[in-house]
Specification:
This protein is of the alpha+beta class. It has one domain: GMP Synthetase, Chain A, domain 3 (2-Layer Sandwich), CATH 3.30.300.130. It is 39% helix and 17% strand. It is globular and about 40 Å long.
């Protein structure tokens, strides 16, 4: 692995970890475990991610986008964050990670 490839892999791991620190404000689960991140591309200090929400018209969408942008821009090596909101495929509980499913069940939510 070249040094540049190693740095990119390291940055990608740090970006995923940073995204896992951001909780949905309406649910006690982070964005990664909810399955809201559909894709991630990193290049030249720019992070581009594909994001969905659990429902169209989500009242917390602007807050979530702002939280993502703020958190990722605080990550060394990230100079720009581009967020594409996508609706295809639609989010469903099938996108939950096992940890996300367990957290929702612990809060008494049916999944």
């Amino acid at each position: 692995m070249t040094p540049a490839a190693g740095l990119a892999a390291s940055l990608e791991a740090r970006v995923w970890a940073a995204l896992a620190e951001i909780n949905d404000p309406e649910m006690p689960v982070n964005l990664v475990d909810l399955g809201l991140i559909y894709g991630l591309e990193i290049g030249e200090g720019t992070v581009r991610l594909r994001l969905t929400f659990t429902a169209m018209g989500c009242p917390a969408s602007d807050m979530i986008v702002g939280d993502i942008r703020e958190r990722l821009l605080a990550e060394p090596g990230v100079g720009d964050v581009l967020i594409d909101v996508v609706w295809d495929p639609p989010w469903s509980a099938a996108r939950l990670t096992p940890d996300g499913r367990e957290a929702l069940l612990a809060w008494g939510l049916s999944v």
